[in-house]
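Final report, section 2: Outcomes. Of the targets proposed, Mitochondrial chaperone BCS1 is the one most frequently requested by collaborating groups, and we therefore present its record in full.
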Amino acid sequence: MGLEGVGMGDGFGLGLGAAAVALIGRLGNRGLSMMNTYITRNYTAKLEITNSDIAYEWMLGHLASRRDFTAHYQIGTSFKKTQAGAIKKLDFNLQPTAGTHYLWEKKPGEWIPRPIKVERTRSQPTASNVPFETIILETFCSNKTEGRERMLEILETARAEAFAKMDTSMTTQIYGTNGQEWSLLSTQSKRPLSSIILDPMECERILKDLKSFVGNKAWYDGMGIPYRRGYLFYGTPGSGKTALITALAGELKYSIALINMADHMMDDSRFLHLLNKAPPDTIIVLEDIDCAFQDRAKLIEGDKRFAGMSGGVTHSGLLNAIDGVTNSDGRILVMTTNYIERLDSALIRPGRVDFAREFKNASDAQICGMFLRFFPDSPDTHAWNFLTGVRSHNADISMARLQAYMMSHRDPVKAMENTAKLASNTSSTAFDGSDPVAPPELELSHFLGKS
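The predicted structure is given below as tokens.
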């Protein structure tokens, strides 16, 4: 009996001990779970991005570009074909594959970088045959505000990198008209503003005015002033008016809509319709505005193609369309002409033309700037020698002719030696560049607007 009692007591004690251990284990697990939940909620930050969001591609590109990231990539290949079937352009795009990755992020002032867990998930394709994907970033933080800021910093870095790539590959769309509707004529590579050679800071001054207009709609609304801006570019043919418009559109990320004022199909009603229906975020260009008022009624008289047309835009029709209250919100209108003296003063008064710029034949600064644009590694003395050679044969030369000359030369020395080809009188003596020209006291960088 005693032995049995002792055995039962021992068994009860063992069972009680096991139960206690189990209880402590459960309490410990529950405590750890609660602690983990507390830490996760208060000291970690997560950012989830789905592939339906534009930021998804930004983040993929950013992660693939980081050197502290994964070595496990997936590849995406893109290419373009010519009409003949030949591959024209082949690109490889590396992206982090699906799975868990880690990167290290160190903010200024921190000694030890913090790990960031990156998880890319991919599910089965949806009805559109596109897999549903997500990127989840998770990191430790001292508080929720700091965690939110850290995630936003990573996202902003990815956005800035994506926009920088977009700027280098951005195009400018050119729209034209058949007299009735707008249609896309061409898509051109974005022209950098640095490719436009004007006098110092001229490009920047015009761009600053445009950006000031684009970014101040609230001010116009508050002042009760129509939110539109008119520009007049006038002067010598081939002086860079159209080239500047193209570069400005690229800087603003705008399109260009061209209206040929000499078009036989253009009349008052069609012109007003085109202005009102211009594509959004577009610079409207009225080319050769001086041709608008030529009487073309006799030219189209009896021609069935122009039946019912008046043969041109009238003076009052043009002014009413420019001043019109219909759909002028945010409109940028640029008029170009080679003959400003032919324009009526009512057309170019303030309110219709807010900014006018004259384009002349190439100045000394523009000639030097053109040379250094094509030969950026040449010393300033070469640019001065080239300027002297050009001026010795031609007192007035257009930028278009100067650029055509430069495009035919790949050697700066040859470009200096052959300036006789630019002579208005072909019997002029060729400049051989043998007599160096001493630069004046004013440095060339001053003319070019360089720091």
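The domain at 171-359 is CATH 3.40.50.300 (Rossmann fold).
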